[in-house]
Amino acid sequence: MSIVDELLANSFVKIRNPSDVEAKLHKIIKDGYNNLMILADFDYTLSKFKDLNGKECLITHSIFVKCTQEVKPELSEKLKVICNKYGPFEHSTKISREEKISKMEDWWYSLNYPKMIFIT
User: Domain of 45?
Assistant: First the structure.
C-alpha cells in the first residue's frame, strides 16, 4: 500500500491529484528533513494569538524570519520584506473580504521558501 493510499484510507482525507502528492512525498523523503521547511499556520488558526502573560505571539511567517536570521540571513531579510508587505492586510478591517483573500493568496504565492512543496 502506498503512502497516499494509506492517507486516502481515512474518510476525512481528500487529495485532488494523488499521483502528484505521492511524487512530492517521495521527494521529501529522498531529500531528507534537513531540506524541508513547512509553513502550516500563518493566521492564528492553529497557533495562539497571545501567550499566558498576554504578550502577542509571533505568526508563523515571523517565526521563519527569526529562525532563518542566523542560518540564512539573506532568506530572513527576504521573508521579512514579504511579511511586512502583506502582514498589515491579514488583520485589516478596512479592506473587503475579497481584497483580503486576494492579498493573502498573493502572500502565499509570492513566497519562495527553499524546497517549498504545495500539496493540492
Answer: 38-120
